[in-house]
Amino acid sequence: MTKHINLIFIMIIFVGCVSYHSISKDSLVYQAKSNGQKFYVITDSIEGYEFSKIEQIECINKDDELVIISVDHNTNLEVYPKSGNVVKMYFGTVKLYSDTLYGLRSRILGIPRKIALKDIDRIEIYSEFKSEKKKSK
Question: Under DSSP, is residue 81 helix (H, G, I), strand (E, B) or coil?
């Protein structure tokens, strides 16, 4: 019986530590270009932006308030395409290159994901430990 109570208690703690925030693709692209680390692909002469150096990002919380959240190694992007399955990737592995988002679903297995910006319907940022502060207008 004690094991069941402990399991329920742990599940409640983890559920309370999860937060989802939404962000428009235009805002994501703007923040990547403003705060991301620029890189160049020499063969194509096209610039791209890495998200790995972004420590904070502006987004919208569940109460439709503009907030700033801290990004850590467990932060995920959940990209909902106009058709098809959700594309999930770790935020720190994402690169914006030639109007396409590239990222990894798993750091260990290296499962690559990509989606063109024109195919994106909406984007949610998933973080395990809520660390947001309201942005003053």
Answer: strand
- Residue 88's identity, in one-letter code, is K
Helices (H), the chain: 2-16, 25-35
Strand partners, 35: none
| Rounded Cα–Cα distance for residues 35 and 44 (Å) | 23
Q: Are 101 and 83 in contact (CB under 8 A)?
A: no
Q: What is the pLDDT of residues 35-83, one digit of tens each?
A: 888 887 766 667 889 998 899 999 998 889 999 998 888 899 999 999 8
Name the amino acid, one letter, at 119.
D
Residue 121 near residue 22 (C-beta atoms within 8 A): no
Residue 48 β-bridge partners: 39, 97
Q: pTM for the complete prediction?
A: 0.77
The Cα–Cα gap between 129 and 72 comes to: 9
Which sign, positive or negative, has the C-alpha torsion 119, 71, 34, 27? positive
φ, ψ at 136 (rounded to 5°): -75, 145
With contact defined as beta carbons under 8 Å apart, do 72 and 132 qualify?
A: no
Name every residue whose Cβ is closer than 8 Å to that of residue 46 and which is 6 or more positions away in sequence.
40, 97, 98
